[in-house]
Amino acid sequence: MHIPDGLMDPAVWVIGFVVAVPILFVAFRRLGRETDEDRMPFMAVLAAGIFVAQMLNFPVAGGTTGHLIGAALAVVLVGPVAAMAVLTVVIVIQSLFFGDGGITALGLNLLNMAVVASLVSSLVYGASKRNMKSSIFAASWLSVFLAAFAAAMELSASFLISGGTYGITPFIALPAMLGYNAVIGVAEGIITVGIWAFISQVAPEIAKAGNEEVAQ
Amino acid sequence: MKRGPATYLAAIAVVFAILLPLYYMFSYGKNDSLERTIEQGNGAQGNSTYNAPFSYGGSYLESLVFGILGMVFVFAVFYALFLVMRKRRMRHE
User: Fold this and answer.
1) Interface pTM, i.e. ipTM
2) Which range among A62-66, A127-131, A153-157, A190-194 shows the weakest confidence by mean pLDDT?
3) Structural domains of chain A sorted by starting position, each given as residue range(s) with its CATH number in brackets
4) CA nearest to B33, candidates A180, A144, A6
């Protein structure tokens, strides 16, 4: 789901930076002020893990592939503020060092995967924890689906603003992105619940601390 | 015995090395959801003005090396941020 350079209308990718950067600035400030220092090495390990997980695309329907975003996993393990910081570091390094996602589209990629996916995960997971596994699955699925919806809206806006020079017509962008990512979201949910269940078994204190972060 | 970050990074690298062949068997060279959408909608494929110094590689060994390199980069950058934050916090206290 990494948007490359040259796909979006300049007005749309500029808006991506304008919206994403202040939100992430606040997230990093809060992380620096409020986060328990003992948890920071774990967050760095989590960021490294999400980086390699995003490299491992898995097949979904019709010869298409998808990969873990990891926002829901980060939210349930370290809370929404740290999750945004974790995803930001991953996405910036993917773009700057590995060419995965464009430089001009960096603001939009941060907005979709670091901001939208983390906030959605946090809201869904925070709202219902009666059955932890179901909540985590729902948070994961919706984080992927709504991040894809945001990307589809950006593609559509680019198409409409530029008169078809950039972006994709909404009649294709919305059903295609939502259709593929509805399936990818199921895989994200299964993987996230699996990793969370494993960590809850081997290091319950990590899962408990993440739970407290979401509750705040 | 408390394990340090290096142990966890090594464990992640091992899991990555085990799962990477599955990626090459089932997903390598296939489009992801956005690429497939661009293909369906005949979207613009503009040139980037920026060339990244690395890629994810085109073989198991290359991907393994670049994946581990990226993993170490990400860990180092996040850890450096942590050290800067700690320094700022100590200055304020």
Assistant:
1) 0.93
2) A127-131
3) 10-215 (1.10.1760.20)
4) A180
Residue contact B36–A176, C-beta within 8 A: yes
Predicted confidence (pLDDT) at residue A108 exceeds the cutoff of 90: yes
What helix, strand, coil percent values describe chain A, rounded to 5? 80, 0, 20
Find out whether B63 and B56 touch, Cβ atoms under 8 Å. yes
* Pairwise CA distance, residues A83 & A79, whole Å: 6
Tokens of A177: 């992105």
Q: Per-domain residue ranges for chain B?
A: 1-31+56-93
Q: What percent of chain A has pLDDT over 70?
A: 100
B59: closest CA of chain A, how far (Å): 13
pTM of the predicted model as reported, rounded to 2 decimal places: 0.95
> Which residue among B13, B30, B33 places its CB closest to the CB of A177?
B33
* Predicted confidence (pLDDT) per residue in A6-23, tens digit: 999 999 999 999 999 999
Among A40, A52, A172, the residue with its CB nearest the CB of B67 is: A52
Greater model confidence, A79 or A37: A79
A155 interface with B at CB cutoff 8 Å:
yes
Sequence-separated (6 or more) residues with CB below 8 Å from residue A196: A73, A76, A77, A132, A133, A136, A207
| CA distance linking residue B52 with residue B56, whole number of Å | 11
CB pairs under 8 A between A and B: 195
For residues A196 and A77, the answer to whether their CB atoms sit within 8 Å is yes
